[in-house]
Write a structure and sequence with these properties.
By secondary structure, this protein is mainly alpha-helical. It has seven helices and six strands; from the N terminus they run H-H-H-E-E-H-H-H-E-E-E-E-H. The strands form three sheets. It has a two-stranded antiparallel sheet with strand order 1-2.
């Protein structure tokens, strides 16, 4: 019998909060401000981490011996290089190459050799007697010690993500492969997961961009309220517009179609000019000369 009875509910009103609406809005604003401050601090920490990695990789590799070359680096150096370069964007990688060139090193971080300095002139020829022969700037060739290191460095660069490191929260870690090593097991699954996450991120960015463009087209702008919430407000102040019908005093009359067609050729007149064909045109021209 007791099991069948409904659970009794209190008829008393819930106690009111002791905080005023102004205190609540201030507390929400402080909470949002702290969340934004944490995001900014995370971005700064990641940027500092990338700068430290550039400084470390500018003097790589730490293990230098005849048995360890750019094509077969030390396993410890290769593993450390991949770990340090994961948060990089392609622009950060270019900064690393430039930093190594300033120090006189080859642009490829796992190469112990110095960069080329035997070329002169502004342009140089590459790949002689080959289908991919080209004329390039000398400074681009001098970034490396050889064409092999250039291929190895660019092979790494194309694997880096264009997305900033602090935006990769829901994305798998970037996996870096070296040109001269065998791919790891499960590499295809990791690449697929990373591509799917990147695609979702691109879709979110595109939707946000389209929404912002639509708001601007409608004349709205985003404004932060007291609680930090974004709201749309009109770009220009609204005003009342009243549409009234024009007061016409004269009597309207329908348009009259001109019916005067003496020679039956009014359909040949276009903007005051009459089209003439063949003998008719010659006859008309001779009549005009006679009248003249």
């Amino acid at each position: 019998m007791a099991a069948q009875m409904r659970e009794l509910k209190s008829i008393l009103k819930p106690p009111r909060s002791s905080h005023t609406p102004q205190q609540k809005s201030q507390a929400e604003a402080e909470k949002i401000a702290l969340a934004h401050a944490r995001i900014i601090q995370q971005q700064k920490d990641l940027e500092l981490r990338i700068l430290d990695a550039i400084e470390t990789l500018s003097t790589y590799p730490p293990t230098r011996s005849p048995s360890h070359t750019a094509s077969s680096p030390s396993p410890q150096d290769a593993s450390s290089f991949k770990s340090l370069i994961r948060p990089f964007q392609p622009s950060d990688y270019d900064d690393l190459i430039e930093e190594r060139n300033i120090l006189g090193h080859c642009g490829y971080a796992l190469c112990p050799k110095p960069r080329r300095s035997d070329l002169t002139g502004k342009f140089t020829l590459v790949n002689h007697n080959r289908p991919d022969f080209a004329i390039v700037e000398t400074k681009d060739v001098q970034r490396w010690c050889s064409d092999g290191c250039a291929r190895r460095a660019l092979y790494v660069k194309v694997q880096l993500s264009e997305t900033a490191a602090w935006e990769r929260v829901a994305m798998p870690d970037v996996r870096i492969d070296l040109l001269d090593e065998e791919p790891e097991q499960g590499a295809k699954d990791t690449d697929l997961a990373r591509d799917i996450a990147q695609l979702k991120l691109d879709e979110e960015r595109r939707a946000k961009k389209d929404s912002t463009a639509l708001s601007l087209e409608r004349g709205d702008v985003l404004e932060r309220g007291e609680a930090g919430k974004a709201r749309k407000v009109p770009l220009a102040p609204k005003f009342d517009l009243t549409i009234r019908e024009k007061d016409v005093k004269s009597v309207a009359s329908p348009p009259q179609q001109e019916t005067s067609d003496q020679d039956g050729k009014s359909h040949l007149v276009l903007e005051g000019h009459r089209t003439r064909f063949g003998a008719v045109a010659e006859e008309s021209d001779s009549d005009e000369e006679t009248e003249a």
